[in-house]
Amino acid sequence: MKSNIAMIGIGVMGENLSLNMENKGFSVSVFDLSKERVDKFIHGRAKGKKIKGCYSKEEMIDSLEVPRKIMMMIPAGDAVDKLIESLLPHLDKGDILIDGGNSHFPDTTRRTKYLESQGMFYVGAGVSGGEEGALNGPSIMPGGSKEAWPEVKTILQAIAAKVDDNVPCCDWIGEDGAGHFVKMVHNGIEYGDMQLICEAYQVMKDLLGMSNDEMHNVFKEWNKGELDSYLIEITRDILAFKDIDGSYLVDKILDKAGQKGTGKWTVISSLDTGVPLTLITESVFARILSSIKKERVSASKVLNGPTIKFKENKKTFTDHLKKALYASKIISYTQGYELMRGAANEFRWNLNYGGVAQMWRGGCIIRSVFLAKIKDAFDNNPKLTNLLLAPFFNEKISESQDSLRLVISEAVKNGIPMPAMSSALAYYDGYRSERLPANLLQAQRDYFGAHQYERIDKPEGKYFHTDWTGHGGETASSVYSA
Fold it and tell me: 161, 17 in Cβ contact below 8 A?
């Protein structure tokens, strides 16, 4: 009996996805470079299930029905390219490779074209939800060779999380690297969400002087309303979790954050496409700043700041903080969707933005009730240029912006850093401004570099240069537009 699909790489994600597939009625062949890992899985969690352990790539490939479907859950980068090259001599035309790791989307585009040139197909499928999601239902974002989608659709949608009336959190994203691009944006928004929550936590802890129990109760209450989400939920649980000695574990964890690169890729992509992804960028930099712990400790002994003085009503201010967090979250998702729109225009992807929100509603790390409103916004207006212009979000940002301004100003007065919330407000105020000071900036560029400028009293697209000093001449430089 041939297996329906193979899994290469049986770390925690590969194991759990394999078990998920088998639980949904599919037979799975598994392979890993570590024979011990295969043995442990086959004789442990996979014992008695329709999961076949393979000890060579050839054995794995021979065990599969055709067209062969092979999913790879290995670290992104060169390891994927090397694995592909080792598999190709044993594959036939029409076979399908699925990359479920966090590969960079240009690599997926390149690999898709390469495999198609060999008569095979490639699917770059972003998978979100961690080990729990992999086992019980993740969010899956597939892209690549469109011809492969009908062959892999049944399996991927079967193992994905379900919302509403059993709608799978998995659907076709687009060609080339579209699937991994959307997963990258998901991770960037995840960076933003986490940083915003951390800023709210620091305000409660350092400005309001709240205990872990008090903060736990606040997040518990927030998770019952419009902020209901996986990240708020786990923050609630983390704040209540105690170490074996009875003290709160969160207070013992070093304030030095790590990252795996997807946030950085998101920021670089925003620069490449000319999209102001300010909040997520600040979230990445906040992690980098946290990583220089020794420098910060030394600086804290030398650099002065204000003494914290808080005289407001704690309950009232916590309500403002909730609104500030919600407003900032709207900005974060707005920027993420703007990045997807910019990439879709550049790479000619036909992205279903409401569909993306649907895929993120279950299984993934940023899942929340909030995403249903985003889906509604794009369902009502598929050509929506900016999430802030949708009636629901326009109303919500109007209701909560005063709270955002209040929270930021109080934090600034007391020396508490708020990089993500501050950038959210700056973006909002910039986006709603009919006129920005870029006219002066363009004059400066023309003064020192003859870069030219447009005039409000002349047709758009016509450029001018001024001899500002009287001895600069009339020769102009080239025009650059972001």
Answer: no
- Sort strands 69-72 and 5-8 into parallel, antiparallel or unpaired: parallel
Mark whether 22 is an active-site residue.
Answer: no
Question: DSSP letter at 229?
Answer: B
Q: What is the DSSP string of 381-407?
A: -TT-S-GGGSHHHHHHHHHHHHHHHHH
Q: How far apart are CA 187 and CA 426, in angstroms?
A: 22
> What ranges in 292-390 are assigned the alpha helix state H?
293-300, 314-347, 353-359, 370-380
> pTM of the full predicted structure?
0.93
Cα 213 to the chain's mean position, in Å?
A: 30
C-beta atoms surrounding 79 within 10 Å: 14
Please report how the helices 370-380 and 391-413 are oriented relative to each other, as an axis angle in degrees rounded to 10: 140
Q: Is the dihedral of CA 202, 203, 204, 207 positive or negative?
A: positive
- Write out pLDDT tens, residues 163-209: 988 999 999 999 999 999 999 999 999 999 999 999 999 999 999 99
| Active site annotation includes 175 | no
> Which entry of 52, 57, 183, 323 is annotated as an active-site residue?
183
- The pLDDT tens digits of the residues spanning 201-233 come to 999 999 999 999 999 999 999 999 999 999 999
Q: How far apart are the first and last CA of the chain?
A: 57
Catalytic residue among 15, 22, 190, 282: 190
Distance from C-alpha of 366 to C-alpha of 161, rounded to nearest angstrom = 13
Counting as low any pLDDT under 70, the low residues of the chain are 476-477, 479-482
Angle ∠(167,126,96) on CA atoms, nearest 5:
95
- Counts for the chain of helices (H) and strands (E), in that order: 19, 10
> DSSP assignment of 81-122, as one string?
HHHHHHHGGG--TT-EEEE-S---HHHHHHHHHHHHHTT-EE
